[in-house]
Amino acid sequence: MKKFDVAIIGAGPAGTTAAYYLAKAGRNVLLVDKASFPREKVCGGGVTARAFNIAGDLLKDFPFNLVSKVYFNEKRTGIEIVIEKEEPFIFMTEREEFDNYLLKKAINSGVVFYSNFEVADFKKGKIFSKENTTIQADFIIAADGANGYFIKKNKKYLKLVPALEVKIDKEMFPNHFGELQTRFDFGIPDGGYAWIFVKKNSASVGVANVANKKVNLNDVLREYLKSFWFLNDKLKFNGYFVPLLKSNLSSCQEWALLTGDALGVADPITLEGIAPAMLTGKLAAKAILSASSSEQACKIYSQKVKNEIYKELKYAKIVSKIIYEHPHLRKFLMKNYGSRLAEKMAQVILHETKYSDEFRNKNNYWKLIKYLFD
Ligand SMILES: Cc1cc2nc3c(=O)[nH]c(=O)nc-3n(C[C@H](O)[C@H](O)[C@H](O)COP(=O)(O)OP(=O)(O)OC[C@H]3O[C@@H](n4cnc5c(N)ncnc54)[C@H](O)[C@@H]3O)c2cc1C
Questions:
Q1: 253-303 pLDDT, tens per residue?
Q2: The pTM of the whole model exceeds 0.90
Q3: Which of 287, 309, 311, 320 has the fewest CB atoms within 10 Å of its CB?
Q4: 267 lines ligand 1 (CB under 6 A)
Q5: Is the CB of 264 under 6 A from ligand 1?
Protein backbone atom coordinates (compact mmCIF):
# COMPACT_ATOMS: atom_id res chain seq x y z
CA MET A 1 0.00 0.00 0.00
CA LYS A 2 1.41 3.42 -0.99
CA LYS A 3 1.95 5.92 1.78
CA PHE A 4 2.09 9.73 1.64
CA ASP A 5 2.35 12.50 4.21
CA VAL A 6 -0.78 14.18 2.80
CA ALA A 7 -3.53 12.99 0.43
CA ILE A 8 -5.65 15.69 -1.24
CA ILE A 9 -8.99 14.87 -2.88
CA GLY A 10 -9.76 17.21 -5.81
CA ALA A 11 -7.45 19.25 -8.04
CA GLY A 12 -9.42 22.51 -8.31
CA PRO A 13 -7.90 25.76 -6.93
CA ALA A 14 -8.31 24.61 -3.30
CA GLY A 15 -6.57 21.27 -3.79
CA THR A 16 -3.75 22.47 -6.04
CA THR A 17 -2.96 25.45 -3.78
CA ALA A 18 -2.75 23.21 -0.71
CA ALA A 19 -0.65 20.66 -2.64
CA TYR A 20 1.74 23.33 -3.95
CA TYR A 21 2.49 24.83 -0.53
CA LEU A 22 2.87 21.43 1.16
CA ALA A 23 5.24 20.06 -1.50
CA LYS A 24 7.25 23.28 -1.49
CA ALA A 25 7.77 22.78 2.24
CA GLY A 26 9.12 19.28 1.58
CA ARG A 27 6.04 17.13 2.29
CA ASN A 28 5.33 13.99 0.30
CA VAL A 29 1.95 14.88 -1.26
CA LEU A 30 -0.55 12.91 -3.31
CA LEU A 31 -3.22 14.88 -5.20
CA VAL A 32 -6.03 12.89 -6.83
CA ASP A 33 -8.90 13.88 -9.11
CA LYS A 34 -11.67 11.85 -10.68
CA ALA A 35 -11.21 13.82 -13.93
CA SER A 36 -8.31 13.85 -16.33
CA PHE A 37 -6.78 17.28 -16.91
CA PRO A 38 -7.24 19.73 -18.51
CA ARG A 39 -10.88 19.45 -17.50
CA GLU A 40 -13.79 21.82 -17.96
CA LYS A 41 -15.42 23.61 -15.03
CA VAL A 42 -18.60 25.68 -15.21
CA CYS A 43 -17.37 29.07 -14.02
CA GLY A 44 -17.17 32.75 -15.00
CA GLY A 45 -13.39 32.60 -14.59
CA GLY A 46 -13.11 35.97 -12.83
CA VAL A 47 -10.22 36.10 -10.37
CA THR A 48 -9.88 39.11 -8.09
CA ALA A 49 -6.84 40.89 -6.76
CA ARG A 50 -7.67 39.14 -3.46
CA ALA A 51 -6.41 35.89 -5.00
CA PHE A 52 -2.98 37.40 -5.67
CA ASN A 53 -2.53 38.29 -2.04
CA ILE A 54 -3.19 34.69 -1.14
CA ALA A 55 -1.34 33.00 -3.97
CA GLY A 56 2.08 34.64 -3.64
CA ASP A 57 4.29 33.45 -6.49
CA LEU A 58 1.80 30.78 -7.54
CA LEU A 59 -0.02 33.03 -10.04
CA LYS A 60 2.98 35.04 -11.14
CA ASP A 61 3.21 33.83 -14.75
CA PHE A 62 -0.43 33.18 -15.61
CA PRO A 63 -1.54 35.12 -18.73
CA PHE A 64 -4.72 36.75 -17.41
CA ASN A 65 -6.90 39.11 -19.41
CA LEU A 66 -6.75 42.24 -17.24
CA VAL A 67 -9.84 44.31 -16.45
CA SER A 68 -9.63 47.76 -14.90
CA LYS A 69 -13.11 49.06 -15.79
CA VAL A 70 -16.27 47.41 -14.48
CA TYR A 71 -19.94 48.41 -14.87
CA PHE A 72 -22.27 47.93 -11.91
CA ASN A 73 -25.96 48.17 -12.76
CA GLU A 74 -29.14 47.94 -10.70
CA LYS A 75 -32.19 46.75 -12.61
CA ARG A 76 -34.98 48.48 -10.60
CA THR A 77 -33.42 51.94 -10.67
CA GLY A 78 -31.57 51.60 -13.96
CA ILE A 79 -28.62 53.25 -12.22
CA GLU A 80 -25.28 52.35 -13.70
CA ILE A 81 -22.00 53.04 -11.95
CA VAL A 82 -18.69 52.67 -13.68
CA ILE A 83 -15.62 51.93 -11.63
CA GLU A 84 -12.36 52.52 -13.39
CA LYS A 85 -8.99 52.06 -11.73
CA GLU A 86 -5.47 52.64 -12.91
CA GLU A 87 -4.57 49.11 -11.96
CA PRO A 88 -6.51 46.05 -13.12
CA PHE A 89 -8.70 44.62 -10.38
CA ILE A 90 -10.33 41.63 -12.01
CA PHE A 91 -8.28 39.05 -13.86
CA MET A 92 -10.08 36.90 -16.40
CA THR A 93 -9.26 33.27 -17.03
CA GLU A 94 -10.60 30.20 -18.75
CA ARG A 95 -10.97 27.70 -15.90
CA GLU A 96 -9.74 24.81 -18.01
CA GLU A 97 -6.42 26.63 -18.54
CA PHE A 98 -6.24 28.15 -15.08
CA ASP A 99 -6.79 24.90 -13.16
CA ASN A 100 -4.37 23.07 -15.44
CA TYR A 101 -1.76 25.77 -14.84
CA LEU A 102 -2.16 25.44 -11.05
CA LEU A 103 -1.93 21.66 -11.34
CA LYS A 104 1.33 21.92 -13.33
CA LYS A 105 2.74 24.27 -10.70
CA ALA A 106 1.89 21.73 -8.01
CA ILE A 107 3.42 18.84 -9.98
CA ASN A 108 6.57 20.87 -10.67
CA SER A 109 6.94 21.49 -6.96
CA GLY A 110 7.00 17.73 -6.34
CA VAL A 111 3.34 16.72 -5.95
CA VAL A 112 2.37 13.23 -7.17
CA PHE A 113 -0.85 13.44 -9.19
CA TYR A 114 -3.28 10.62 -10.00
CA SER A 115 -5.97 11.55 -12.55
CA ASN A 116 -9.10 9.41 -13.08
CA PHE A 117 -8.88 8.49 -9.40
CA GLU A 118 -12.33 8.81 -7.89
CA VAL A 119 -12.34 8.63 -4.12
CA ALA A 120 -15.21 6.40 -3.05
CA ASP A 121 -14.53 6.41 0.67
CA PHE A 122 -12.00 7.40 3.28
CA LYS A 123 -11.32 7.13 6.97
CA LYS A 124 -8.66 8.46 9.31
CA GLY A 125 -5.32 7.89 7.56
CA LYS A 126 -6.69 6.17 4.43
CA ILE A 127 -8.45 6.94 1.15
CA PHE A 128 -10.06 4.33 -1.10
CA SER A 129 -10.64 4.70 -4.83
CA LYS A 130 -13.66 3.40 -6.71
CA GLU A 131 -11.35 0.79 -8.22
CA ASN A 132 -10.32 -0.39 -4.76
CA THR A 133 -6.90 1.20 -4.53
CA THR A 134 -6.04 2.14 -0.96
CA ILE A 135 -3.68 4.99 -0.11
CA GLN A 136 -2.34 5.71 3.33
CA ALA A 137 -1.75 9.29 4.45
CA ASP A 138 -1.11 11.04 7.75
CA PHE A 139 -3.35 13.97 6.75
CA ILE A 140 -6.30 14.25 4.37
CA ILE A 141 -7.61 17.39 2.69
CA ALA A 142 -11.08 17.37 1.11
CA ALA A 143 -11.11 19.73 -1.90
CA ASP A 144 -13.75 17.88 -3.89
CA GLY A 145 -15.90 20.89 -4.76
CA ALA A 146 -19.59 21.66 -4.98
CA ASN A 147 -20.65 18.15 -5.85
CA GLY A 148 -18.46 16.25 -3.45
CA TYR A 149 -19.01 14.05 -0.41
CA PHE A 150 -19.13 16.80 2.24
CA ILE A 151 -21.58 19.01 0.34
CA LYS A 152 -24.02 16.13 0.22
CA LYS A 153 -23.42 15.35 3.88
CA ASN A 154 -23.80 18.96 5.08
CA LYS A 155 -26.70 20.07 2.88
CA LYS A 156 -28.77 21.47 5.74
CA TYR A 157 -26.03 24.00 6.63
CA LEU A 158 -25.70 25.22 3.05
CA LYS A 159 -27.60 27.27 0.53
CA LEU A 160 -27.09 25.90 -2.98
CA VAL A 161 -27.23 28.85 -5.37
CA PRO A 162 -28.16 27.82 -8.91
CA ALA A 163 -26.18 29.52 -11.67
CA LEU A 164 -26.27 29.24 -15.44
CA GLU A 165 -23.40 30.22 -17.67
CA VAL A 166 -22.62 30.35 -21.38
CA LYS A 167 -19.40 30.92 -23.24
CA ILE A 168 -19.55 33.39 -26.12
CA ASP A 169 -16.82 33.08 -28.73
CA LYS A 170 -15.56 36.22 -30.41
CA GLU A 171 -15.69 34.64 -33.86
CA MET A 172 -19.37 33.75 -33.41
CA PHE A 173 -20.30 37.44 -32.96
CA PRO A 174 -17.66 39.43 -34.85
CA ASN A 175 -19.85 42.57 -35.10
CA HIS A 176 -20.78 42.92 -31.46
CA PHE A 177 -18.05 41.23 -29.43
CA GLY A 178 -15.92 44.38 -29.28
CA GLU A 179 -18.78 46.29 -27.60
CA LEU A 180 -18.90 43.95 -24.61
CA GLN A 181 -18.00 45.32 -21.20
CA THR A 182 -17.26 43.48 -18.00
CA ARG A 183 -20.34 44.04 -15.88
CA PHE A 184 -22.49 42.99 -12.94
CA ASP A 185 -26.25 43.53 -13.39
CA PHE A 186 -27.87 43.26 -9.95
CA GLY A 187 -31.58 42.41 -10.00
CA ILE A 188 -31.36 40.12 -13.06
CA PRO A 189 -33.06 37.96 -11.88
CA ASP A 190 -34.70 39.95 -9.06
CA GLY A 191 -33.00 37.89 -6.33
CA GLY A 192 -29.66 37.56 -8.07
CA TYR A 193 -27.35 39.03 -10.63
CA ALA A 194 -26.20 38.62 -14.20
CA TRP A 195 -22.63 39.03 -15.35
CA ILE A 196 -20.50 39.49 -18.43
CA PHE A 197 -16.82 38.72 -17.99
CA VAL A 198 -14.83 39.64 -21.06
CA LYS A 199 -11.72 37.68 -22.00
CA LYS A 200 -9.46 37.93 -25.00
CA ASN A 201 -11.38 35.79 -27.48
CA SER A 202 -14.45 34.87 -25.50
CA ALA A 203 -16.76 36.07 -22.76
CA SER A 204 -18.58 34.34 -19.94
CA VAL A 205 -22.20 35.43 -19.65
CA GLY A 206 -24.24 34.10 -16.77
CA VAL A 207 -27.02 34.51 -14.25
CA ALA A 208 -27.28 33.40 -10.63
CA ASN A 209 -30.38 33.09 -8.47
CA VAL A 210 -28.83 33.92 -5.10
CA ALA A 211 -32.11 34.33 -3.17
CA ASN A 212 -33.36 31.02 -4.60
CA LYS A 213 -36.58 32.71 -5.78
CA LYS A 214 -38.91 30.87 -8.13
CA VAL A 215 -37.53 31.79 -11.53
CA ASN A 216 -36.65 30.07 -14.78
CA LEU A 217 -32.93 30.84 -15.09
CA ASN A 218 -32.90 29.54 -18.65
CA ASP A 219 -35.41 32.24 -19.69
CA VAL A 220 -33.56 34.92 -17.70
CA LEU A 221 -30.27 34.09 -19.44
CA ARG A 222 -31.92 34.04 -22.87
CA GLU A 223 -33.45 37.49 -22.27
CA TYR A 224 -30.16 38.84 -20.96
CA LEU A 225 -28.26 37.57 -23.98
CA LYS A 226 -30.91 39.02 -26.28
CA SER A 227 -30.50 42.46 -24.73
CA PHE A 228 -26.87 42.43 -25.85
CA TRP A 229 -27.54 40.94 -29.31
CA PHE A 230 -26.07 37.60 -28.29
CA LEU A 231 -28.70 34.99 -28.82
CA ASN A 232 -27.81 32.09 -30.99
CA ASP A 233 -29.10 28.50 -31.23
CA LYS A 234 -25.56 27.18 -31.11
CA LEU A 235 -24.94 28.48 -27.59
CA LYS A 236 -24.66 25.83 -24.91
CA PHE A 237 -25.92 26.78 -21.44
CA ASN A 238 -24.18 25.08 -18.52
CA GLY A 239 -25.77 24.98 -15.10
CA TYR A 240 -24.22 24.31 -11.72
CA PHE A 241 -24.55 25.68 -8.24
CA VAL A 242 -22.40 27.52 -5.76
CA PRO A 243 -22.64 26.28 -2.17
CA LEU A 244 -22.87 29.08 0.40
CA LEU A 245 -22.76 28.69 4.15
CA LYS A 246 -26.05 29.28 5.98
CA SER A 247 -24.38 28.64 9.32
CA ASN A 248 -20.76 27.90 10.11
CA LEU A 249 -19.69 24.35 9.39
CA SER A 250 -17.07 22.40 11.23
CA SER A 251 -14.07 22.82 8.92
CA CYS A 252 -12.63 19.49 9.96
CA GLN A 253 -14.82 16.42 9.66
CA GLU A 254 -13.95 12.73 9.76
CA TRP A 255 -10.29 13.80 10.15
CA ALA A 256 -10.31 15.60 6.79
CA LEU A 257 -9.71 19.35 6.47
CA LEU A 258 -12.50 20.79 4.31
CA THR A 259 -11.50 23.45 1.78
CA GLY A 260 -13.04 25.56 -1.01
CA ASP A 261 -16.54 24.72 -2.20
CA ALA A 262 -16.50 21.61 0.00
CA LEU A 263 -16.66 24.05 2.93
CA GLY A 264 -19.08 26.51 1.24
CA VAL A 265 -16.77 29.51 1.52
CA ALA A 266 -17.60 31.38 -1.70
CA ASP A 267 -18.45 35.07 -1.30
CA PRO A 268 -22.25 35.38 -0.83
CA ILE A 269 -22.38 38.69 -2.74
CA THR A 270 -20.23 38.05 -5.82
CA LEU A 271 -20.16 34.22 -5.62
CA GLU A 272 -16.42 34.48 -6.02
CA GLY A 273 -15.13 31.05 -5.04
CA ILE A 274 -11.65 30.82 -6.56
CA ALA A 275 -9.87 33.15 -4.10
CA PRO A 276 -11.60 31.64 -1.01
CA ALA A 277 -10.76 28.15 -2.32
CA MET A 278 -7.10 29.13 -2.64
CA LEU A 279 -7.15 30.76 0.78
CA THR A 280 -8.57 27.67 2.51
CA GLY A 281 -6.09 25.48 0.59
CA LYS A 282 -3.23 27.61 1.84
CA LEU A 283 -4.56 27.67 5.42
CA ALA A 284 -4.97 23.88 5.40
CA ALA A 285 -1.37 23.51 4.19
CA LYS A 286 -0.13 25.85 6.92
CA ALA A 287 -2.08 23.98 9.61
CA ILE A 288 -0.64 20.64 8.50
CA LEU A 289 2.88 22.08 8.37
CA SER A 290 2.66 23.18 11.98
CA ALA A 291 0.96 20.05 13.35
CA SER A 292 2.29 16.70 14.49
CA SER A 293 -1.03 14.85 14.31
CA SER A 294 -4.30 15.12 12.40
CA GLU A 295 -6.05 16.09 15.66
CA GLN A 296 -3.70 19.02 16.07
CA ALA A 297 -4.02 20.02 12.38
CA CYS A 298 -7.81 20.03 12.80
CA LYS A 299 -7.59 22.33 15.79
CA ILE A 300 -5.20 24.78 14.15
CA TYR A 301 -7.13 24.82 10.86
CA SER A 302 -10.52 25.32 12.54
CA GLN A 303 -9.16 28.33 14.41
CA LYS A 304 -7.69 29.82 11.22
CA VAL A 305 -10.95 29.36 9.32
CA LYS A 306 -12.88 30.97 12.14
CA ASN A 307 -10.59 34.02 12.32
CA GLU A 308 -9.82 34.57 8.65
CA ILE A 309 -12.93 33.34 6.86
CA TYR A 310 -16.04 33.02 8.99
CA LYS A 311 -15.51 36.47 10.47
CA GLU A 312 -15.61 38.02 6.98
CA LEU A 313 -18.45 35.84 5.74
CA LYS A 314 -20.62 36.94 8.66
CA TYR A 315 -20.64 40.51 7.31
CA ALA A 316 -20.76 39.53 3.64
CA LYS A 317 -23.90 37.49 4.37
CA ILE A 318 -25.66 40.60 5.74
CA VAL A 319 -24.88 42.59 2.59
CA SER A 320 -25.95 39.65 0.43
CA LYS A 321 -29.30 39.47 2.24
CA ILE A 322 -29.96 43.15 1.56
CA ILE A 323 -28.99 42.99 -2.11
CA TYR A 324 -30.82 39.81 -3.03
CA GLU A 325 -33.65 39.37 -0.53
CA HIS A 326 -34.74 43.01 -0.05
CA PRO A 327 -34.92 44.57 -3.52
CA HIS A 328 -36.64 47.74 -2.20
CA LEU A 329 -33.78 48.36 0.18
CA ARG A 330 -31.30 47.60 -2.60
CA LYS A 331 -33.06 50.20 -4.73
CA PHE A 332 -32.95 52.76 -1.92
CA LEU A 333 -29.26 52.16 -1.23
CA MET A 334 -28.36 52.23 -4.89
CA LYS A 335 -30.21 55.54 -5.38
CA ASN A 336 -28.64 57.21 -2.37
CA TYR A 337 -25.27 55.57 -1.92
CA GLY A 338 -24.73 53.71 -5.22
CA SER A 339 -21.34 55.18 -6.12
CA ARG A 340 -19.97 54.70 -2.64
CA LEU A 341 -21.19 51.12 -2.45
CA ALA A 342 -19.74 50.22 -5.85
CA GLU A 343 -16.45 51.86 -4.86
CA LYS A 344 -16.40 49.85 -1.61
CA MET A 345 -17.07 46.68 -3.59
CA ALA A 346 -14.12 47.47 -5.84
CA GLN A 347 -11.96 48.12 -2.76
CA VAL A 348 -12.90 44.74 -1.29
CA ILE A 349 -12.02 43.11 -4.61
CA LEU A 350 -8.73 45.03 -4.65
CA HIS A 351 -8.05 43.86 -1.10
CA GLU A 352 -7.86 47.50 0.07
CA THR A 353 -10.60 46.95 2.64
CA LYS A 354 -12.51 44.06 4.19
CA TYR A 355 -16.21 43.65 4.96
CA SER A 356 -15.38 43.42 8.67
CA ASP A 357 -13.41 46.73 8.57
CA GLU A 358 -16.34 48.52 6.92
CA PHE A 359 -18.79 47.28 9.54
CA ARG A 360 -16.43 48.20 12.37
CA ASN A 361 -15.93 51.77 11.13
CA LYS A 362 -17.86 53.98 13.57
CA ASN A 363 -18.76 56.55 10.92
CA ASN A 364 -20.18 53.99 8.62
CA TYR A 365 -23.84 53.50 7.81
CA TRP A 366 -23.15 49.76 7.60
CA LYS A 367 -23.47 49.84 11.39
CA LEU A 368 -27.15 50.63 11.00
CA ILE A 369 -27.59 47.88 8.45
CA LYS A 370 -25.94 45.39 10.78
CA TYR A 371 -28.29 46.49 13.56
CA LEU A 372 -31.31 45.97 11.29
CA PHE A 373 -30.31 42.64 9.81
CA ASP A 374 -28.06 40.81 12.24
C1 LIG B 1 -21.73 29.31 -13.00
C2 LIG B 1 -20.62 29.60 -12.02
C3 LIG B 1 -19.81 30.70 -12.21
C4 LIG B 1 -18.76 30.98 -11.31
N5 LIG B 1 -17.96 32.05 -11.55
C6 LIG B 1 -16.93 32.32 -10.71
C7 LIG B 1 -16.02 33.38 -10.99
O8 LIG B 1 -16.12 34.06 -12.00
N9 LIG B 1 -15.02 33.61 -10.10
C10 LIG B 1 -14.86 32.87 -8.97
O11 LIG B 1 -13.94 33.16 -8.17
N12 LIG B 1 -15.69 31.81 -8.70
C13 LIG B 1 -16.70 31.52 -9.55
N14 LIG B 1 -17.52 30.43 -9.30
C15 LIG B 1 -17.24 29.59 -8.12
C16 LIG B 1 -16.02 28.70 -8.37
O17 LIG B 1 -16.15 28.03 -9.60
C18 LIG B 1 -15.83 27.66 -7.25
O19 LIG B 1 -16.07 28.29 -6.02
C20 LIG B 1 -14.40 27.09 -7.25
O21 LIG B 1 -14.18 26.34 -8.40
C22 LIG B 1 -14.18 26.20 -6.02
O23 LIG B 1 -12.93 25.56 -6.14
P24 LIG B 1 -12.65 24.15 -5.45
O25 LIG B 1 -11.21 23.87 -5.63
O26 LIG B 1 -13.20 24.15 -4.09
O27 LIG B 1 -13.54 23.11 -6.26
P28 LIG B 1 -13.53 22.70 -7.81
O29 LIG B 1 -12.86 23.72 -8.62
O30 LIG B 1 -14.93 22.34 -8.15
O31 LIG B 1 -12.64 21.38 -7.83
C32 LIG B 1 -13.08 20.18 -7.24
C33 LIG B 1 -12.37 19.02 -7.90
O34 LIG B 1 -12.64 17.81 -7.18
C35 LIG B 1 -12.81 16.75 -8.07
N36 LIG B 1 -13.58 15.70 -7.39
C37 LIG B 1 -14.87 15.76 -6.97
N38 LIG B 1 -15.22 14.62 -6.35
C39 LIG B 1 -14.13 13.81 -6.37
C40 LIG B 1 -13.88 12.50 -5.90
N41 LIG B 1 -14.80 11.76 -5.27
N42 LIG B 1 -12.65 11.95 -6.10
C43 LIG B 1 -11.69 12.67 -6.75
N44 LIG B 1 -11.88 13.92 -7.22
C45 LIG B 1 -13.08 14.49 -7.02
C46 LIG B 1 -13.50 17.37 -9.27
O47 LIG B 1 -13.29 16.61 -10.46
C48 LIG B 1 -12.83 18.76 -9.34
O49 LIG B 1 -11.73 18.78 -10.22
C50 LIG B 1 -18.55 30.14 -10.18
C51 LIG B 1 -19.38 29.02 -9.98
C52 LIG B 1 -20.40 28.75 -10.89
C53 LIG B 1 -21.27 27.54 -10.67
A1: 998 999 999 999 999 999 999 999 999 999 999 999 999 999 999 999 999
A2: yes
A3: 311
A4: no
A5: no
